[in-house]
Write a structure and sequence with these properties.
Strand content of chain B: under 5%
Helix content of chain B: 40-55%
Largest interface: A-B, 45 and 37 residues
CATH class of the largest domain in chain A: Alpha Beta
Distance between the termini of chain A: 30 Å
CATH architecture of the largest domain in chain B: Orthogonal Bundle
Shape of chain A: globular
Distance between the termini of chain B: 20 Å
Shape of chain B: globular
CATH architecture of the largest domain in chain A: 3-Layer(aba) Sandwich
Structural class of chain B: mainly alpha
Helix content of chain A: 40-55%
Strand order of the largest sheet of chain A: 2-1-3-4
Oligomer: heterodimer
CATH topology of the largest domain in chain B: Fumarate Reductase Iron-sulfur Protein, Chain B, domain 2
Number of domains of chain A: 2
CATH topology of the largest domain in chain A: Rossmann fold
């Protein structure tokens, strides 16, 4: 099965390992991730006002250039921006018209692409039961917490990723790899996000709340799909600390394609 | 020239898509806000102050930069008022004025080091400047 793939800027650099292991795992799972040609940065933030057209254009271009029907994302932020822009495209004529007037594409985007996160691909296209059968190195005995953060889940009606208040997709993923998923109350709360840049104390407070909650519930390690969550959980951890990895690193370990 | 209260209020309502009159004052937004303590004006106050046309007060408060954009208040509002959208819209009104960038491009670039993810720098460019 061939999917178009949008890696995004951070996966080409600071979060390289999320991309590298996703590709290795895709090979094992018989999936072809075809990187979009000449993709542009998604902008990282979905614009705060509905009359902001330009910040959504790079997402529209990515959708327009998707040939495979489904566009796979890995990074929570890219996923968020692309999925919401796609949602807008199909519902907001004002946005669609202005974007087309500006871009003047030969063939306007028809709105037919489906944006799916790699976790959704694993759950909905491959299935966690089938994934379990591909595991050669079950992560038996490891107590792993999912840090969902905000971008994958909210707003729930648009992202339609999982129950925004009581998600289970990453726990089911962890279980499929043979480890023990640990649920904890703050798994779908904020990591401190961009405010970390000018107000480290604020990010430290958010991270401590999450890590305290995770440790109290018995997590021994965390996984995430977001480079910004990763940054905050590691760099702004204070009293409590936990090892954090990207979900694709864990997958690669279980599928036997991660060295060391 | 000063912005009129009417202009500011109508613009915030239009670009946020929020109807503050739907608010039933339950306080769930501020109760769930992870950065409540740091904000001068809390999420529920954004709703009531926009309704009263007190947009300039909000524009001049650091609260617009202390919203984490996590959408907890947006998701959990039982009346679908979504205070976070008001915070975002007010911040846009501020940034759309001449010389009102919170940070310049070089200020943001100065944060780049071996660890900071590109996602964070890009987010700051979007949140702090036009």
């Amino acid at each position: 099965m061939i999917y178009s793939y949008y890696p995004g800027c951070t996966l080409k650099d600071r979060a390289k390992q999320m991309d590298i292991y996703a590709r290795k795992c895709a090979d094992v799972l018989g999936i072809a991730l075809k990187e979009l040609p000449e993709w542009q940065c998604c902008g990282a933030v979905y614009p705060a006002a509905s009359d902001e057209i330009a910040p959504r254009l790079s997402a529209v271009r990515a959708l327009m250039n998707t040939e495979e029907g489904k566009l796979v994302t890995m990074c929570s932020a890219c996923h968020h921006v692309l999925k919401r822009t796609n949602f807008d495209w199909n519902r907001d004529e004002n946005f669609r018209q202005k974007a087309n007037n500006y871009m003047k594409p030969e063939t306007p985007y028809d709105g037919s692409v489906e944006v799916i996160h790699f976790l959704e691909l694993l759950r909905d296209e491959i299935g966690f039961d089938a994934l379990k059968e591909k595991v050669v190195n079950p992560l038996t005995g490891r107590k792993i917490g999912a840090f969902y953060g905000c971008l994958l889940l909210r707003p729930g009606k648009v992202l339609a990723f999982d129950d925004p208040e009581n998600p289970s997709i990453i726990e089911d993923f962890i279980r499929a790899l043979g480890a023990e998923p640990v649920r904890y109350p703050y798994r779908n709360e904020c990591c401190g996000a961009y405010v970390a840049l000018e107000n480290k104390a604020c990010a430290e407070m958010q991270v401590e709340r999450a890590l305290n909650s995770a440790v109290a519930a018995g997590c021994e390690e965390l996984i995430t799909a977001c480079p910004l969550c990763m940054y905050n959980l590691v760099e702004n951890a204070t009293a409590h600390k936990l090892p954090v990895s990207y979900f694709t690193e864990l997958l690669a370990e279980a599928l036997g394609v991660k060295e060391g | 020239m000063e912005n009129s209260v009417k202009f500011l209020t109508e613009t915030v309502l239009r670009i946020s898509g929020v109807d503050p009159r739907k608010c039933m004052k339950c306080g769930k937004c501020s109760g769930t806000c992870p950065n409540y303590d740091a904000m001068e004006y809390h999420p529920h106050q954004f709703v009531s102050m926009v309704e009263k046309g007190q947009i300039e007060k909000l524009m001049n408060s650091d609260s617009i930069y202390l919203c984490l954009g996590c959408m907890a208040c947006v998701e959990r509002c039982p009346r679908n008022v979504a205070p976070g959208k008001l915070v975002g819209a007010v911040a846009q009104l501020k940034l759309r004025q001449q010389d009102m960038n919170r940070k310049g491009g070089n200020d943001v670039a100065a944060f780049a080091d071996e660890i900071v993810p590109q996602q964070l720098l890009m987010a700051a460019m979007r949140k702090y400047r036009k």
